[in-house]
Design goal:
The chain is built from 5 helices and 2 strands, in the order ααααββα. It has a domain at about 50-140 and about 155-165: Flavocytochrome C3, Chain A (Flavocytochrome C3, Chain A, domain 2). Helix content is about 25%, strand content about 0%. Bound molecules: heme C (HEC) (2 copies). InterPro entries: Multihaem_cyt_sf (IPR036280), NapB (IPR005591).
């Protein structure tokens, strides 16, 4: 069994070793940020260009959901679709449940035809859902600067590609 004395000695040694390391290591200004240029000037900063899918709707492949009931990412080109006005919403043109099947698009789910405040089913899509791109965004093909180790857990295999929020909306709430 490890005695308390040994434990205290051990921790003391690690503190000494750790502080020794901190002193011997130094960093340049250019090393501190993720962008690897002088942090005090924007002059040489070049943003990585975004590169969105250029595959047309109907020919793209859907992207696995980031987690259970995450809003799906838009896998297709949205060029010309995102000047959303009161009169014109291209997204509903293909994604409304009554047309979606014909164009092989994922239909807008029941949760979007539901008033979250009154908890009532609506006959029309909730106006809170009108601006699709507030929640659904295209994915840019870029290498992440920081590796993300998050691994989603889906309770059902189908949740990797379909949502069911309306069925478990108040789960755990009494
Ligand atoms: C011309 C018809 C059309 C239009 C317009 C359209 N989509 Fe799509 N969308 C599709 C189809 C078809 C798919 C399935 C993937 C494919 O076949 O390209 C899809 C897939 C998606 C998906 C992924 C669904 C999933 O199950 O993962 C999202 C999110 C989406 N679209 C959102 C939008 C948004 C937001 C707009 C408006 C900016 C929009 N779409 C406009 C046809 C369309
Ligand atoms: C306030 C955020 C928000 C807005 C606005 C919104 N959505 Fe969603 N959407 C979600 C979330 C979250 C999900 C996944 C959970 C669920 O089913 O509601 C989802 C799911 C979807 C799905 C996948 C359905 C399935 O069965 O897997 C489609 C398709 C979709 N939305 C299309 C749209 C379109 C088209 C619009 C615009 C008319 C829109 N959404 C507006 C948040 C939003």
């Amino acid at each position: 069994m490890t005695s308390i004395k040994t434990l205290i000695m051990g921790s003391l040694i690690s503190i000494i070793v750790a502080s020794g390391c901190a002193v011997s290591q130094s960093y340049n200004e250019e090393d501190l940020g993720l962008r690897k240029v002088d942090l005090y000037s924007e002059k040489t900063v070049v943003g990585e260009p975004t590169s969105y899918s250029t595959v047309s709707a109907g020919e793209s492949k859907t992207i696995q959901r980031s987690f259970e009931n995450a809003p799906p990412l838009i896998p297709h080109d949205v060029e010309g679709m995102l000047d959303m006005t009161k009169e014109n919403n291209a997204c509903t043109g293909c994604h409304m449940p009554e047309v979606a099947e014909a164009v092989k698009a994922t239909p807008i789910p029941k949760s979007h035809f539901f008033d979250m405040r009154t908890q009532k089913v609506l006959t029309e899509m909730s106006s809170a859902r009108y601006n699709c791109s507030a929640c659904h965004v295209p994915q840019s093909a870029n290498e992440p600067l920081v590796q993300n180790n998050f691994k989603p857990d889906y309770r059902k295999e189908s949740e990797k590609s379909r949502s069911n929020l309306i069925d478990n909306l108040n789960e755990g709430v009494k």
